[in-house]
Amino acid sequence: MIVAVAALAAKAPVIPGSDAYGKTSKCVKDNGTFCWDWVRDRWSGTVGPALVQHIQLAVVAVVIGFAISFVLALLAYRARWLVPPVTFLSSLLYTVPSLAAFYILVPITGINDFTVEIALVSYTLLILFTNTLAGLTGASGDVRDAARGLGMTPTQSLWRVELPLAVPTIVAGLRVAVVTIISLVTVAGLIVPDGLGAVIYTEGLKKNNFNTALIVGGVLCIVLALAADALLAGLQRLITPWAAARRSR
Amino acid sequence: MPVDTGKTAAPLEFRNVTKRYEGTDAAAIKDLSFVVPAGEVCVLVGPSGCGKTTAMRLVNRMIDMTGGEILIDGKSISGRSPADLRREIGYVIQHVGLFPHLNVANNIGTVPRLLGWDRKRIASRSAELLELVGLPAEMGKRYPSQLSGGQRQRVGVARALAADPPLMLMDEPFGAIDPINRDRLQNEFLRLQREIKKTVVFVTHDIDEGIKMGDRIAILREGGELVQYDTPDAILANPADEFVARFVGADRGLKRLALTNLEQVDLDEVTCVREGETISPGTWVDNDIVVVVDGERKPIGEMTRDVSSDSAVTLGSARPVGASIPITASLRDALSLMMTESIRPLLVLDGEGRVAGWVSIDQINKAVRQVPNESAAIDAAGIDLDK
Question: Which residue stretches of chain B are H helix?
Answer without folding.
Answer: 52-59, 82-87, 104-108, 110-114, 119-132, 149-161, 179-196, 207-213, 232-237, 242-248, 252-259, 331-340, 361-369
